[in-house]
Amino acid sequence: MPKTIAEINERIKNGKVVVVTAEEIIDIVEKVGVEEAARQVDVVTTGTFGPMCSSSVYLNTGQARPKIKFGGGKVTLNDVPAYTGFAAADILIGANALPESDPRNQVYPGEFNYGGGHVIEDLVAGRDLVLKAEAYGTDCYPRKKMETYINIRDINEAVLFNPRNAYQNYNCAVNLSDKIIYTYMGALKPRLGNANYCSAGQLSPLLNDPLYKTTGIGTKIFLGGGTGRIVWHGTQHNPVVKRKYNGVPSVPAGSIAVMGDLKKMSPEWLIGTSMQGYGVTLSVGIGVPIPILNEEICRYTAIKDEDIWTQVVDYSHSYPHGKPGSIAEVNYARLRSGEIKIHGKNVLTGSLSSYSRARKVAGILKDWIEKGKFFLDSSIAGLPDADSEYSCMPLKERAIMKKKKA
Amino acid sequence: MISKKIVLHFPAGLINKPIISTLAREYKLEFNIMKALITPDEEGLMVIEISGDEKDFDKGIKYLGKEGVRIQSLSKDIKRNDTRCTNCGVCVTICPTQALVYDKETHEVHFYDTKCIACELCIKACPVRAMTVKF
Fold this sequence. Notes:
The complex is a heterodimer of chains A (406) and B (135).
Chain A: H1 5-13, E1 19-21, H2 24-40, E2 43-45, E3 48-51, E4 56-60, E5 74-77, E6 80-82, E7 90-94, H3 116-124, E8 129-134, E9 145-150, E10 157-165, E11 172-174, E12 181-183, E13 186-188, E14 195-197, H4 205-208, E15 216-217, E16 220-223, E17 226-233, E18 256-261, E19 270-275, E20 279-287, E21 289-291, H5 295-301, E22 309-314, E23 328-331, H6 332-336, E24 339-342, E25 345-351, H7 355-370, E26 381-382
Parallel strand pairs in A: 1-2, 11-22, 14-25
Antiparallel strand pairs in A: 2-21, 3-20, 4-7, 4-10, 5-6, 5-8, 8-9, 10-18, 12-13, 15-26, 16-17, 16-20, 17-18, 19-20, 22-23, 24-25
Helix pairs in contact in A: 2-5
Chain B: E1 2-10, H1 19-27, E2 30-38, E3 44-52, H2 54-66, E4 70-73, E5 77-80, E6 100-102, E7 109-111, H3 121-125, E8 131-134
């Protein structure tokens, strides 16, 4: 007995909607079967919280008096450089941006205590930021210099815009070399000293909708403590990959581009993050609601950690050189147990993505829907799927030809 | 007589030297090794209780310094900012004494400060900088 999103929204309005989290649906399907579960449940909420490097905020500061044109000039926020390739008062701050004065990895491993991710956190927390601007001056934008505090409550727009978030599955990283390495997957100790993974597994948005049946462009989501939307497939979206019988990819696959009003978000769900020896980033909380329109969709949401597999990848050699190759395949139940066995060796596991925060996101989204504060939207277009010809390619490097002298 | 608990950091090249036995033979100090391990940086780390005559103790400490051993008193305190911590769990494989432990049931990270030896490895390993050191 299929349902429609309009019917589910009607039930939200009447306070009759049945919402469960992606953890709770597992037990329900086990107890009453998928057919009955699909009849009883209207919405399954998912959640994830972890470092997501392709994140940014664009903002419009309002025009200064006299006017100054940021476009083509230089702007920093708390000394972190912003992108100024837009019009006069629009700038963009990326999560990975670093102050020019940061020593990076000159003192190895670098600490990366403050950067774009932290600027975004300070902005959403309502703290004053120091904006410094240099411009070349024009007849209509005469000013060449400006230094001022800005605050999110005083500026026109502040929009979180993340070109690649919520990866569908991710590698488990290890180090086969003889020395410690510092990666975006954390510090990896030599000779399989530890194994770090990064996925909310059975709670993760795209692992609960592995073939993108309901998740698509326009889908309304929990984003950074407020609401946002999926606006496109994420960069490096890679749907045509190895999948298990349940449709779940066993390597990194899909991703989503998301955006939303930063002014309505919270610093609890957008946290400036420092990866030792690697750089700065932003930890983002995302939750996607999945309308249970039919049995098939319900079956996908009942996925368990033990049925989601990923690859153990060596980050000392094969990853940096872009060489394919998996050392082992493990499931998330094993990873979350704290220890896995690789090459006969017991290896302790660490997670970068917070499962307890993912659970909280799914719980908040469930609460919003139950209380009638959040209605579902049909997506207006799907993401490129497993039957598409869409793929993620490596860079084709080509030698630059030297121009002949005239 | 004097007795003190201290943390010794042995730089990578020093691990093979018989430093502690010299401390006993030459400086007549008694010792009780409470914890000894090699960190991921190949640095030796030892929590040790040293006792003996006060003069010998001072000489022994001087000897350690001369050999390149970094000495740290155990009075340093590592604290966790619980509102900042996201319970991700990336610290648990870095902590050499299992003072940071992932709870499989609640999916939260427990911090047992009695097991902490203030090695400070977690400070920079924590992505949201929830661990802080207090002197």
